[in-house]
Specification:
Length: about 850
């Protein structure tokens, strides 16, 4: 916050001091005049809430305290209700409170925002208003991005971003198109994560401090040996039987049902952060570790795997699984463990209060459970753990001089490097059909993909403001550049990797994209503001896949624009509208040859994706409405996303001399004719200081994906709301409705906070379809409506120590997450506790 003060003395005989404060907080000022001389006995002072003390050597005349009130530092939690547009804010405390079992759980409960494929990999893949994947919703951490896409076998591919929740200070989420420098190609929104700094660690008034955190969780079991089976036995259920029905237990694994007692700690986390601040330098050093085994599913709701029986024409029993997945209620869910270690170093150079340079380094290591989602169509089994090593370097520069309206410079630069080995166990069963109880497993062997990627980039922007004859004008301008490359790690023998170890060749190539933008905000009247931004972007990709004799190169460019209008008829009430057109170039995954696309890209050239987004909304922010110091916050918006040339995978129609129809279906990347997502969101929050509550709702009215005529086989539908055959859209269709209710109280002079959150996730907006190709195909995400109840508490013993205790999924519901790519149930009832010590 910038504050400017002018201290001036009125005529001596007045005995008063006049103080004028601009953009300040609430201050108290006092001065003392000597009756003998009519002059201040010491300099007038400006302090925060503390009047000057009288001199011990004189008999001064002490004036009454003069209180100067101004606007306090804005609360970032209010930004979603005071900013024209749809956004969300998550504090570090909220991340800790709702962090759940999997990394992406902290994103739950935000209208229009979901984390996809939450239970498979320990990563983040954000869906905003139906837009997901391949840079549509970039996730940046201190200005750095590192999205990598992992092949899921026949079941597609999932983009992933890795974040350690222990190092999160806060998160801001911008929904829809953005005019910011870091939003090139972000057709769905932007998630911006800030890591912890000195303000998160130091106690008030301290220059040096240490923060210790320790926590535990329940509801998990140690990871079993690789090859351990779990859940429903698909193979045994297909064996021929007599008219006698075999026992139900022979259809399931004998393991996985030893769920620990509710209050037995089975996993935990811990971190230490050290900070020091001086006038010139701020330093933060931190280490965090988190470990948990495979969690267990809930038991209520009736959706767990269970035996159902029918009879064929010969009155022989035909058995099947009546559940949502292969796993039973309360069963250990294989491949869901995590073992994370993280380091962080951040240094901020403060040249003056408005001039900063922040340098940072983070390292993230994880051994985690993962399975190709297509493997879950058979019997579930424990694979070897996958590993990831992520190094991130960041530099952030800010300069906003108080005496200049033309310089507000922001520069972010980063380098991120990922080494990701995704292990998948291949099992080759040898079945003895004379024994109908179970197939005999003969052998298994490792099968994995190894992805190495680097990404470096820089964004820069400046804002200049001035007063013109027609009102206030602010001009924003800047640009961004990113370079990324992907391939096998250095030193890896590709032929040995592929032919001896059974590894799948990954994409190999590079991509770069540059953009520049200029925007103008004009406020002709106090209650009226208009804005316009235009952006030009250009990209180049090079495909160096190992089967090529030469590099395949492609480039393209396009323009984006965004317009906004805001009316504020009275303070705290905003009516706004936004309309924009944004191009998205194919991501590096969509641009290179990979196992996900059988058809070469040079035979299937792509166009830029072009999004047209419209939003109409209202914000209301009021204080002291019904009670003294109460707060009312309301936001509501209608959104309409129309994306021409939507990029996805599909079963592409190709000519063939070996087909009776003359055409075959081949997996390839294509531009659809268009995709549409329309709907509403609304949220309301009320806080009296002692009691608080909020309600959020998101509702979709229309979703559709349409291909052009002649692209798919004749028997395929051209348009489907639930996604097209073999398309990633099958796993990106959100629920029609979501509701979140949060209620709580602050007691014992606000030392104790108690609360509960209820999340309702409705049915899928439209049913999906699945179609086999070869021996597999794309599986649409599948779930049934579910309601989750979480309770939480926090007690602040003193300024040094606080405790927190929460229960996730209080009713122990068995459910499948919305937008799942892998058929893995979510965690059942889990108790989490932690303690924080600061000194």
């Amino acid at each position: 916050m910038k504050s400017r003060y002018r201290l001036s003395a009125l005529p001596r005989t007045s005995g008063q001091i006049s103080i004028t404060a601009f953009l300040g907080t609430t201050f108290v000022a006092s001065a003392m005049l000597s009756p003998a001389h009519g002059q201040p006995s010491q300099a007038g002072s400006l302090s925060e809430g503390t009047p000057s003390q009288s001199s011990a050597t004189t008999a001064p005349l002490v004036l009454d305290t003069i209180t100067v009130k101004g606007k306090a530092e804005p609360d970032p939690a209010d930004a979603p209700y005071q900013t024209p547009g749809s956004s969300a804010y998550i504090s570090g405390e909220q991340v800790e409170r709702f962090r759940g079992t999997s990394v992406g759980d902290f994103l739950s409960g935000i209208p229009g925002v979901l984390n996809a494929d939450s239970r498979n990999s320990g990563a983040v893949d954000v869906n905003i208003r139906g837009m997901q994947g391949q840079g549509r919703v970039p996730v940046s951490v201190d200005g750095a991005t590192q999205e990598t896409t992992i092949w899921q076998g026949y079941n597609g591919a999932t983009p992933r971003t890795y974040i350690d929740p222990d190092f999160i200070s806060d998160i801001s989420i911008e929904k829809g198109l953005s005019s910011a420098a870091d939003a090139t190609g972000a057709t769905g929104g932007v998630v911006r994560v800030s890591t912890i700094g000195v303000k998160d660690i130091l106690l008030p008034g301290k220059r040096y401090g240490i923060r210790l955190k320790g926590g535990f969780n329940t509801n998990s079991s140690p990871v079993p040996s690789a090859g351990t089976y779990g859940g429903w036995d698909h193979i045994a259920s297909t064996l021929p039987y007599t008219k006698e029905l075999p026992p139900a237990h022979t259809r399931f694994s004998a393991d996985g049902m030893s769920r620990p007692p509710l209050l037995t700690p089975t996993g935990g986390s811990g971190s230490i952060a050290i900070a020091n601040t001086t006038e010139m330098v701020d330093i933060v050093v931190a280490y965090a570790q988190r470990k948990n085994g495979n969690y267990h599913a809930g038991v209520r709701g009736g959706d767990g795997a269970h035996l159902i029986v029918d009879y064929d024409d010969y009155e022989r029993p035909v058995v099947g699984n009546g559940g949502l997945s292969s796993y039973r209620a309360g069963e250990e869910i294989l491949n869901t463990s995590i073992d994370n270690k993280s380091w962080m170093l951040k240094t901020t150079l403060n040249f003056d209060p408005t001039h900063h340079l922040e340098l940072g380094y983070r390292k993230y290591l994880s051994d985690y459970g993962h399975v190709l989602s297509s493997r879950l169509w058979g019997m579930a089994y424990q694979s070897w753990l996958s590993t990831i090593a992520l190094d991130t370097y960041t530099a952030r520069y800010r300069w906003n001089p108080e005496d200049s309206n033309f310089l507000n410079l922001k520069v972010d630069a980063f380098l991120s490097a990922v080494e990701n080995r995704v292990n998948v166990m291949e099992i080759s069963p040898e079945t003895d059909y004379s024994d109908p109880t179970h197939p005999q497993i003969d052998r298994y062997y490792p099968y994995f993909q190894w992805v190495s990627s680097k990404r470096m980039g820089i964004t820069a922007s400046n804002t200049s403001g001035f007063i013109s004859p027609v009102g206030g004008v602010s001009v924003r301008y800047g640009g961004a550049f990113v370079y990324e490359e992907t391939g096998q790690p250095r030193g890896l023998d590709l032929q040995y990797y592929m032919w001896e170890l059974g590894g799948e060749p990954t994409s190999n190539g590079s991509r770069q994209e540059g953009s520049g933008f200029v925007g103008v905000d004009w406020q002709p009247l106090q209650w009226l503001k208009a804005g316009a931004t235009t952006r030009f972007s250009h990209f180049v990709t090079k495909d160096n896949f190992h089967t090529r004799t030469s590099t395949y190169k492609r480039h393209d460019s396009g323009w984006s624009s965004l317009f906004s209008l805001t009316i504020e008829p009275e303070e705290g009430l905003q009516l706004y509208t936004k309309y924009g057109r944004m191009v998205r170039a194919p991501s590096i995954f969509e641009s290179l040859t990979s196992p996900s696309f059988y058809y070469p890209i040079e035979k299937n050239p792509l166009k830029l994706e072009r999004a047209h987004n419209f939003e109409l909304g209202v914000n209301l922010s009021r204080d002291n409405v019904w009670l003294s110091d109460d707060r009312v916050r309301i936001h509501a918006a209608y959104f309409d996303n129309h994306i021409d040339d939507y990029l996805t995978r599909a079963g592409v129609r190709r000519e063939s001399q070996n087909s009776a129809s003359g055409y075959v279906e081949v997996l390839g990347r294509i531009n659809l004719d268009y995709a549409k997502m329309r709907g509403f969101e609304a949220s309301v929050a009320y806080d009296t200081g002692r009691y608080f509550g909020s309600l959020a709702w998101n509702h979709y009215t229309h979703i559709m994906f349409c291909a052009r005529k002649g692209v798919l086989l004749d028997e395929e539908p051209i348009c489907r709301a639930g996604g097209l055959p073999h398309s990633y859209s099958l796993q990106q269709v959100p629920p029609r409705n979501t509701f979140t209710l949060n209620m709580g109280a602050r007691l014992l002079q606000k030392k104790l906070e108690l609360g509960s959150r209820v999340n309702y996730v409705g049915s899928r907006m439209a049913s999906g379809i699945s179609k086999n190709i070869g021996v597999g195909g794309m599986q649409a995400s599948n779930w049934r409506p579910y309601t989750l109840v979480d309770i939480y508490s926090k007690y602040k013993l003193n300024k040094h120590v606080s405790f927190a205790l929460s229960i996730d999924n209080l009713t122990d519901r068995y459910y499948m997450d919305a937008l799942n790519a892998a058929l893995m149930p979510a965690p059942g009832r889990t108790v989490r506790g932690n303690v924080t010590v600061q000194f």
